[in-house]
Amino acid sequence: MSDLQTLHRGHSRNFENFKFIYPVLSRRSRGISIGVNLNPDKVCNFDCVYCQVDRRSQAESKFVETERLLAELDSMLDYAASGEIFREGKFASTPADRKRINDIAFAGDGEPTTYRNFDEIVAAAAALKQKHGLNDVKLVLITNASMLHRPAVARALEILDANQGEVWAKLEAGTPEYFQRVDRTPIPFRQILDNITSAARVRPIVIQALFMRLHGDPPSVEELTAWCERLRDIRAAGGQIRLVQVYTVARRPAEDFVGALTDTELEEIATSVRDLGMAAEVFGAA
Question: Which parts of the chain register pLDDT below 50?
Answer without folding.
Answer: 1-14, 58-59
